[in-house]
């Protein structure tokens, strides 16, 4: 007969919890190009206060169905493209502009991914908002000292002109002073270029005009050997609501009607043609595909790949 007794099991390790996430980078190949999605961190966004054309109860119920609150932890993503000839970063994260501990992780994650911020030849901005351009400089010092910054002329003229600040909605006003501060070292070094059209900026990388969220909001289309990735900037802020209902808008839009039109057009095109999409505020790494579903669309996140 076997007698069981409760014996204290000695804890050999007793390891303290680590509490940190893995470095925020994710690699994929696109034809001959290497794409690295980079996390700048996350920020809690009170979407039930910021979304338009959706009732609070509806927002809460869709979020709950996806095991999310109405103030979800929202990714801030940037994308590094190594074409073999150029190292090009699309968007620069928030830098220190979200305050301590929120965002600003991009430089560390660039290094964790095997690159140095100094190696970057160009930073292409989808638009000039804190969480996309804030990481260009910290305390007046360029984070990408050897890079030329590219941005659509309409965004440069809008955000870098202090006269517009007085006319802007109160929620947008802080962006002007912040834009001026982070652009200063690049302007001083004559390293800012604006563009007007959709011509290639580098072989395999071209801007697409997608105004609405801001006057010069831009997608970047990356193409290599017949494979395509569109980097969408701020097309999505609440993925569980805006794919099924692209008419749902966010308060940060400078022109909400145009932004809704742009989102519908982008989703319809991506679903019809099946190319890769990368977005700043879809859960990291924010890379996947779009398909039609019901009257709207659905996000199909990338399946894990070793990136070869
Ligand atoms: Zn954004």
TrEMBL record:
Q: What is its EC number?
A: 3.-.-.-
Looking up InterPro entries in the UniProt record yields:
MBL_superfamily_lactonases (IPR051013), Metallo-B-lactamas (IPR001279), RibonucZ/Hydroxyglut_hydro (IPR036866)
Report the family membership: Belongs to the metallo-beta-lactamase superfamily.
The record's listing under SMART domains reads:
Lactamase_B
Kindly state which keywords UniProt assigns to this record, in alphabetical order. Hydrolase, Metal-binding, Zinc
By what name is this protein known?
Answer: Metall dependent hydrolase
Q: Which residues form the Metallo-beta-lactamase domain?
A: 75-281
Give the matching CDD domains: OPHC2-like_MBL-fold
Molecular function per GO: hydrolase activity; metal ion binding
To which species is this protein native? Answer: Cupriavidus necator (strain ATCC 17699 / DSM 428 / KCTC 22496 / NCIMB 10442 / H16 / Stanier 337) (Ralstonia eutropha)
Among PANTHER family, the record links this protein to:
QUORUM-QUENCHING LACTONASE YTNP-RELATED, QUORUM-QUENCHING LACTONASE YTNP-RELATED-RELATED
Matches recorded under Pfam families: Lactamase_B (PF00753)
